[in-house]
């Protein structure tokens, strides 16, 4: 707990692209000492992101500091009114953040987490007008120390939350998994199928091998990853590919982010290359004891043998052997990639919510929004039920009395 003579907190809003070297240094120190790591909210990620994709300086930060030390930070963009708030408002799920980040927990300084979380919530309320009366927070960890502290601070400060989303996405908590290199956490049928695919892939490459003997190569040059992307569906506009090569300044951004993290030993590129032929590549960024699966892709030429599945399993094995990691976050949306969730033995719970920032008018408005949503859901259920009942009656065979009446009339 902080002492009573701790320096007072100060709060401010700032555009990412306007911060000077001193601020970025303080930001980096906070990211390196966060109670719950979030590589997507560190300066080595967001500063290049703003430089390449934010010419209008819409990507901003809420900052809490004390005596020159940053205690808490939350990025946001202003977004239009939606069904969760009827006015333009702040969100960590705006156009830029939604496209490039995968975790929404704010940076809260370890050792002073409660004070940092409380300061952040009070900053939100202090800037209620500038933030549009509410803040929308997507993919906040539900069971991590940062996410828990934030939600507790909202409750302590009397802010109402409208929880509108929640998922459990694939992860690896290395301390909880016995011998992840043996893939014993996979369902037996899945493990058998994966081993069969490994044999077929290596046979097609001309070097027959078993899954247990496959390894991943470390790649030093991020440009090699970008060249490989051109061989994958992610570079194909006809398939709505999501590759960096399809974004204006996307390749340059990828290289800048990777090199910024690599300079501190916090970026890794891996490739599956039986017989020197690349079938899978993956990029990882690290913050503290957490490794984030940033981006991966597989070659079309071996797609029938599921090189992506093989590559993801082998990354679990490789990083488990490293011995200095607590968590691997797959960064995969569970509803979009349900089949891939089986490849990871643990789950990371996330929650998404809207918080009203003003006093009683905002709290009352959010309560009414929640109640309206509940009434709409009840009405929708009733409409579906009535429609199903009408369909059932229409499809039901006529009763004997109806048939007899019809026969008499004829």
From TrEMBL:
Region (Disordered): 387-410
Domain BioF2-like acetyltransferase span(s) in chain numbering: 189-329
The name this protein goes by in its record: BioF2-like acetyltransferase domain-containing protein
Compositionally biased residues, Basic and acidic residues: 387-404
Stored Pfam families: Acetyltransf_6
Organism: Oerskovia enterophila
Tree of life domain: Bacteria
């Amino acid at each position: 707990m902080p002492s009573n003579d701790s320096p007072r907190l100060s709060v401010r809003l700032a555009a990412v692209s306007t911060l000077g070297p001193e601020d970025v240094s303080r930001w980096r120190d906070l990211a390196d000492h966060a109670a719950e790591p979030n590589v997507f909210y560190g300066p080595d990620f967001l500063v290049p992101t703003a430089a390449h994709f934010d010419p209008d300086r819409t990507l901003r930060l809420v900052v809490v500091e004390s005596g020159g030390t940053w205690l808490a930070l939350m990025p946001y963009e202003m977004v239009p009114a939606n069904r969760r708030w009827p006015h333009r408002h702040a969100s960590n799920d705006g156009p830029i953040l939604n496209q490039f980040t995968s975790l929404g927990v704010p940076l809260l300084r370890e050792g002073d987490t409660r004070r940092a979380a409380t300061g952040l919530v009070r900053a939100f309320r202090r800037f209620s007008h500038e933030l549009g009366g509410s803040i929308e927070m997507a993919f906040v960890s539900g069971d991590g120390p940062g996410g828990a502290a934030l939600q507790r601070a909202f409750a302590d400060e009397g802010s109402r939350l409208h929880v509108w989303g929640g998922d459990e996405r694939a992860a690896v908590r290395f301390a909880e998994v016995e011998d992840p290199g043996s893939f014993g956490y996979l369902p037996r049928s899945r493990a058998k199928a994966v081993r069969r695919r490994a044999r077929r892939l290596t046979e097609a490459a001309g070097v027959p091998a078993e899954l247990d003997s496959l390894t991943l190569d470390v790649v030093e040059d991020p440009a090699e990853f970008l060249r490989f992307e051109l061989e994958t569906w992610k570079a194909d506009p006809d398939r709505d590919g999501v590759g960096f090569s399809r974004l204006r300044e996307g390749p340059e951004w990828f290289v800048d982010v990777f090199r910024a993290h690599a300079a501190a030993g916090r970026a890794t590129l891996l490739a599956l290359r039986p017989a020197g032929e690349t079938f899978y590549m993956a990029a990882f960024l690290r913050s503290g004891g957490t490794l984030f699966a940033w981006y991966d892709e597989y070659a079309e030429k071996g797609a029938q043998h599921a090189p992506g599945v093989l590559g993801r399993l082998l990354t679990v094995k490789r990083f488990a052997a490293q011995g200095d990691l607590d968590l691997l976050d797959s960064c995969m949306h569970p509803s979009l990639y349900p089949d891939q969730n089986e490849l990871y033995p643990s789950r990371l719970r996330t929650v998404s919510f809207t918080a009203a920032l003003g006093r009683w008018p905002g709290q009352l408005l959010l309560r009414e929004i929640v109640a309206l949503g509940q009434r709409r859901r009840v009405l929708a259920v009733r409409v579906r039920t009535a429609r199903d009942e009408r369909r059932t009656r229409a499809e039901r065979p006529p009763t004997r009395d109806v048939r007899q009446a019809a026969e008499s009339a004829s």
